[in-house]
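Chain A, query sequence.
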Amino acid sequence: MGIQDYLVSMPEPNHGHHHDEDHIPPPDLHREKRILGFKPLHVVIGALFLVAILIIYLLLIARAGY
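Chain A, predicted structure.
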């Protein structure tokens, strides 16, 4: 159980007044998973871009005859 779950599960203190209606918590906002702060799709696109550059570089070296 994380600290966020612990804080959510703590009851609110009663300060002497009672609300007639129940307190409705805000819905959990959907947060996208991030990899080092980047969206997974952007990580995949970046990896493909780097692989493409590496292949072009290797082809140029092979063509040069090194």
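Residues 40-64 form the longest helix (25 residues). The mean pLDDT is 78.
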